[in-house]
Amino acid sequence: MDFETPHDLGWKRCFEQQLSISEMQDCIVSRVGSHLGSQVLVLASNAEMTLPISLIESCGEVTVGDWLLLDATTHRGVRRLERDSLIARKAAGEQAKSQPIAANIDTLFIVSSCNHDFNLSRLERYLALAIEAQVTPIVVLTKSDLAEDAELLRQQATQLKSGLIVELVDARDSQQTSVLSDWCRINQTVAIVGSSGVGKSTLAMSLGAETLKTQGIREDDSKGRHTTTTRSIHRLNSGGLLIDTPGMRELQLADCEEGVSEVFDEIIELAQFCRFRNCNHNGDPGCAVQESIERGDLSPRRLKNYLKLQSEQARNSQSLRERRQESRKLGKFYKSVQASKQRYQNRDE
């Protein structure tokens, strides 16, 4: 990929304002294009470099889409610029750790196929993730030929949030996917998320990304196989950038309270009229939320998912806070040990 200027890589004024005069003169502005285990691919004006993680350790944890300053001579990392946005989830498994997915994106394409993969509760998870990161969510429904009534699925998805845009496309047809071009223009970065086999890589190629591996889905349960194994940046026909991500079988939310509240804003509004301020909406007398369900105005599924996501993100957020506190305490301990060693050395001298 050839990028003549940082602007072609999605450079914005909010990043430029973080630079000092000396950094403008002595550093290379680069963007993380792919994370390759012990190495990262960084993109700069008219240059691509594969660097070992050890060379950029001063930048801290990095993910695809991050902006880094590199020493112009040694290419050693100087620092990571503050992110404009970050899509992250709780890492899979029992470990209390946050896993960055993509940084500094403007739009999140949430891809679902019109088969067994279509799941309103899962879409709500992705919506909360996008809204918490303050990026624009666009739901893209693919493989409409696999559904008896794809338009009905589109209407159901549209009702998840006021103003939500839902596009129904054949990911193989570049004419149909052109409806997404407004979010893929120069200086814009989009990320694609969704389960394996929903057509994310096919969609990316229709938008102009270079050839990516694709595989079919199992007919018995419509589940796909992982074809994209690393997150990477691709340039699109319309001038923008796209971050392709591997399929996610597990998407645990953490530090996502605002996102969950905004996705389920009608429940938050109803709760203000409950008899008790600490109403749990699960059998308490005078519950305005349950009354709305009884009238048929609110779906029981929607309340169930709201309570599930609210509890999940609160639990995971607490675990992450405890982990951060432990890390800070450990860091202070290491510093005190180093200081003690230094005092003994100075005394011996």
TrEMBL record:
CDD domains from the UniProt entry: YjeQ_EngC
SUPFAM superfamilies (alphabetical): P-loop containing nucleoside triphosphate hydrolases (SSF52540)
Molecular function, one GO term: GTPase activity
Residues binding Zn(2+), per UniProt: C274, C279, H281, C287
Similarity remark: Belongs to the TRAFAC class YlqF/YawG GTPase family. RsgA subfamily.
NCBIfam families: ribosome small subunit-dependent GTPase A (TIGR00157)
Protein name: Small ribosomal subunit biogenesis GTPase RsgA
Lineage, broadest ranks: Bacteria, Pseudomonadati, Planctomycetota, Planctomycetia, Planctomycetales
